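User: My collaborator and I are trying to settle a disagreement about how two of our proteins should look. Neither of us wants to argue from intuition anymore, so we agreed to look at predicted structures for both before our next call. Could you fold the first one, then the second, and keep them clearly separated?

Assistant: That sounds like a sensible way to settle it. I'll keep them separate. The first protein:
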Amino acid sequence: MAQFDSVLIANRGEIAVRVIRSAQQQGYRTIAVYSAADANAPHVQMADEAVLIGPAPPKESYLDPQRILQAAAQTGARAIHPGYGFLSENADFARACENAGIVFIGPSADAIGLMGNKGAAKRLMLAAGVPCIPGYQEEDQSDSALVKAAQQIGAPLMVKAAAGGGGRGMRLVHDLADLPAALAAARSEAENAFGSGELILEKALLQPRHVEIQVLSDHHGNHIHLGERDCSIQRRHQKVVEESPCPVMTPELREAMGEAAVNAARSIDYRGAGTVEFLLDADRQFYFLEMNTRLQVEHPVTEMVTGLDLVALQLQVAQGYPLPLSQADVVLSGHAIEVRLYAEDVVNGFLPATGTVYRWRKPAGEGIRVDHGLAEGQEVSPFYDPMVAKIIAWGEDRATACRRLQRALQTTVLFGPANNRQFLLDVVQSPQFEAGLATTAFIAEQFPDGVQPAASTRVHYCTAAVLQYRQAVAASERMQTSPATYLRGWSGIRAIHAHYRYPTVSDEVLDIAVRQTGAGRYECVLDDSHHVLAWLGEDSPGLATVTADGVAQPLNYAFTGRGCVSLQLGAYAGVFTNLLAFTRGDEIAMASSGVVKAPMHGTVLQIAVAVGESVSVGQELLVMEAMKMEHRLLAEVTGVVSGLHAETGRQVSAGMVLIEIAEDVTR
């Protein structure tokens, strides 16, 4: 194994920052790569060197092996760490690194290839004696073979893309009559995401736990495991919360699952860090799901309960050194829980969100770790995964870790793109989660009607009005022409009120009158109620302490657009738009439901209608791809397509009109 003193990180965002940090601590020279969209990203600023590898689209930058290898040659990088996602599980890329004399920090290309296809991996695991879910994983991919196998398996069953994961190319089928449509949809999504439409079928376990084992192997035949992670709380088959240890784990079950995971790694002569994923049913029976031949997103919880640096261990193994510890040396201490902070519109079906980061304040405190690649002023792009940060809490026991995580989420501030902070807080504050009872059905059970927006009180609206009042006063003072300070704020003998008008989630409109009654003291009149807010001082730009109706709280805020202010008062966060900031003729609300707009930036994959075609409510109109997921836009009215402004393969921006429907008002 070749020695190396420099590492190129073929990734972006929080994982690139995390790898760079450990590599630099170990004394390696680090090289970042970046697309045009990431020119000012934190990982670029942090690395010793950085190379521009192309425009924003991943296929022209982070997913282009030749551009990565050219950057390595240009900078003399002797090793490449792929992070996760992008090229991390691309066997051809691992082989290309080897052919170029560059150390690929991960398993061999052969091992990646063996586990990269779910069908082939299941066949291999069955041969190795690893328990597997009953299903179909054969090479015959005809619909007739899949339907015949499904009839033998029975419903419910899962249709899965053999060549990928992350919830893409995956469908749950409750009724076999729905299987043909599920096969077509899963195959289409899989071909678009992974370049392969190969599918497997599995008997669906509807309320299992998703438990995975972290394995570590070297070039000398040593294989150990580092305990488990419970990743049961998922949305669209993508993990949202992870923790270690699993709340229902026993020493005997851990030993059995650990042994199965090590056997899986040994059977393919694995090396480096990897994860073997299982489903665990209520009877403590576990079944192989898949193996991820890379570092996992959730690896920090393992690091926090073992005290190990998995990236540093990856670097050691890649240098050819034997593992510095044995299975007997692995000791789990305390409990760790991680949540994934996503830029997404939770209320609007968890659609990926984009936008400028106006304010980012990560939480701090005992036992808190934050992995992120965020910086104020940067753009959250539509081209990449919407996960922007991970917040991890450790405690001596699970209850302590849970409390610390709850407080960390309460003090996390992210203004700009819509995000799931409040949703995460709702999850970790739920009694079922606190009791350690969550399964993969958790989100469906706890949020059967979807996620509702956080409730805003009148105090929140009044606080927004005071912030915009102060903003207006400050702007007025900057524009004053007289230097006489005694004229500042002069208003004559009549009390002057400033008026603000805000729409609510219930389609009401609130009118608020703000009057300054003293230094830092404001009275807000709302209908027949009065609220008093006292400005106690600003600790730093965008962070103040206020007293609202006698209760002092920290206030984070940012002015995020015309007439808009984002604020976080205590744990509550919201965006408030003053309708009076817009003049007559401004479009400040969405058009009628007959106008179909792009809900986010993305690419049009398929158009299902044509001009002149009749459509009905709920009919599929168009399929978009954004942030690696497919999204289907449905008709909200019955009528005739009168305008079509989209075309297949075209990139569209959020709010762009795609289809117009002339509504049939006779129905």
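The second protein, kept apart from the first:
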Amino acid sequence: MYHPKAKQKLMSLAVAAACAAFIAPVHAQESDQAGVSPAPSNSGEVQTVVVSGLRASLGSSMNLKRNADGVVDGIVAADIGKFPDTNLAESLQRISGVSIDRSIGEGSKVTVRGVGPDFNLVLLNGRQMPTSNLGDLNGRAFDFANVASEAISQIQVYKTGRAESPTGGIGATVNVMTARPLERPGMVASFGAKAVHDTSHNNLPGDIKQGSATTPEFSGIYSNTFDNNRFGVSLSASYQERNLGFNQAAVSNGWRGPWKAGEGPITQSSATNPPKAGEVYSLPQNLNYNMNGVQRERTNGQLTLQWAPLRELTTTLDYTYSENKIHTRRQDLSAWFNFGPSVSTWGNGPAAGPLQYTELIPGGNADIAMGGADFATRTQNKSLGFNAAWKTDDLKLELDVHKSSATSGADSPFGSSNVLGTASFSRGDTTVDFSNAFPVLSIKGADFTKAPQQVTGSVFQNGYMKGEIEQAQFKGNLKLLEASSLKFGLSANEVKNRSAISTQQRDTWGGATKPSDYPASMFHQESLSKYFDQFGGSKNPNLFTQFYTFNFAELRALTSKLTGLPELYLPKNTFDTDQRTQEKSKSAYLQFGTDWNTAIPMHTNIGVRYETTDVVSTALVPAATGISWVSANEFPLSFGAPTFTTLTGKYKHWLPSVDWDADIRSDMKLRASYGETIGRPRYDQIQGGTTLDRLARDFGGTGSQGNPQLKPVKSKNLDLSWEWYYAQQSFASLGLFYKNLSNYAGQSKFTDTPFNLHTPVGGALWNEAVSKGNCGTDRVCIRNYIFRNHANAPGVTRGADDASGNATGTIVGQPSDPVMSFEINSFSNQKKERLKGAELNVQHMFGDSGFGLSANYTWVDSGLKYDNAKVGEQFALVGLSNSANLVGIYEDKNWTVRAAYNWRDKFLSSTFDGAGPNPNYTEAYGQLDLSVGYAYNDKLSFQFEAINVTNETQRVHGRAESMALFVTQAGPRYMLGARYKF
């Protein structure tokens, strides 16, 4: 067996990260670094400190942690327009307890203290932000890939619940703050440009490459104040291009099962070391190798206007815009398994995966599938907000309103997702070797000359998602006596989410056209192995490496013409499913804070928040009308006019919080916090209707149904921490946390017969073929018998024989046939569990040498773990993992160097694969990033950055390590830029 590289290299790369800080010339650190006052404050307000330089930025972040109520961590920009990372998620992962999910090589979503992205709330300047992501339709997770970092002044991560914080963040509430001109009087302006070179772009087939591997990035910010600092304006903008690629070996349709030992398609006589009694096993539905060329364009901008007509009054009007466009071209090679006669070798249980699996294909006429895709998406975020703050010595009042939206949809006439299938029908016995990290596919009898490539089935989809938030907040802070304050507030939120999708699918996987319809020049021969050169298995001589690529647009146009059915090779103009959810929430809070003049100075904050939410969920769902049997194991559903259904729900909560801290020494602090928080269900968990999946199998179909009456997950949180601030920019801390989770919603499954759909399986014609045709379970034989003996029977439509001599056509279920059963996935509140963990954090600056080190480690544990040997309903916490960070820095008058190593242990990333409710485990992963800056003078500086320096790969597996799901390689990325301050 194998061991992931991340596990092998954790210590060596951690040491490398620290040592890399020493590559710059060593100069004595100047003593006039921007000062950061370490003096403690129990005001409950997070202090804003203007700093310059990376080392001073770390000191300011330290003070943010020290001076806040509860457990708060954060990152402060080294200078306006100069955030430490180009991606906010990449910065957040440096904070203890924060881990990230990556998409196309960039940080996208955050997990905090083992709590997954859906249960972390993201705010922009204290305002709740909508979410929209076609890659996770109906989720609540905010995608940080949509936001550039140029205008961000700081990020605050509130890990403990507070009455004044909006609800929705069980793991944390993340507040992203942008620059405000009146907070930095005078003119500040800068412009930056970068050249980005992504090495992953070079390792792609020519048919999917887009543009050049080297692309530009531009950013600028202007901020100024006028009229004696009573009026301020700031404008920031950025434009970023990136051309990249990633190559992936995948069991993309998931692992069928699990079956119990002795059941299912595997027989003891055909298996070596077969699963034993009490164990379960699964089989791959297919094996797919896909190469992906991606073009990403990201545009961000923000305009902020501030006016202070009175000394006590400041008004702010701001507008934020972002656009993220992603264009993907894909080519793949795959083999589909139908669980017929096989030979296999198995690993050990309790959840057994095959080490080798061979499906025997008599006649050698199965398909070698080679698909292509060309699709694009666009996500737009818009936010318009107004804030008025009145502040005197004893009273502060604030009114804040905003309207924000996030919209994702197709950015291509070919839709937001698509595939055009081609195949050579010459596949004989097919073997997959899963014994190593990289699965190796072997095929006997392949002959592209005898069976040339032809177009088969196709899928064209249009996805759409839009989130909208209208929010009004009124806050107050009244100073009482000399050392106490009362915070109070009211808010009203209306959150709307709409997600919709249409699917234009042609299930002609046995062939839609003839091979002779296409000129040979349309298909381009490629060798698979070179695209997976980071994996040893790519050099395995048994790997089937020959495949053909094509220009998607040209092949789609020709096929559309040849079939005379152009409407089937474009996405629909109407949606098949349309889910709309509205949540109206009202809340009020009180929070009382006071200092205690005792022998040991203490501060307490006691608060309570009341929140009530009404949910209305409406869904347009297709009404299924019939089932057609179109190929060996393809039973697509037909649908009539869709219908809307509406369901409602309601919940309310009292959420208390208590924060206590004590300065046991002038440089040492103890904290204790208790708070109750809630995390709202995902939108797909509360959809208003039943949706059936379009493709069923001979054993039945699948579908999903929401539950708008789901209650939010409620967490009772206890935090203890010790913090030692032993030098101006150095500290050590140990934090312990405990979360008692209730109302956790997991997948539940039930069997139903929606729409009473009749299936040919088990009907009169099927049974006759089994008995009189001696077909047994051979579905190809059964189809041939029915077409050749009952071509004119009701529901039977025979086509021409294919190249292998097998009959084609459709067999539609009749009223006398059995009714198909569907496994319906739904959701319910049933589980209570605890989550506990610890965070160790150290930041040390080595005097005035210019060197510094930041390190942290987070350990988490919970009983909400997936049982790989269990069949049926599961409740598990997605995202739970240990993590560690090590950052080494060097800084002097001219040089700034930072080497950052981030590591995340294995974690459950999903409880669903393409086959059903099965686990996805993302294996341990570590990444080393490096940045070097040189200040030529006070105005001009240069930067070099390297991302994923050691070219790490990623792997996801199922119930056993041998059950590969996704094995991905990309490549390092390098950036060279300059920045000029005016």
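Some points you might bring to the call about the second protein. The first helix runs from residue 5 to 20. The CA atoms of residues 111 and 969 lie 23 Å apart.
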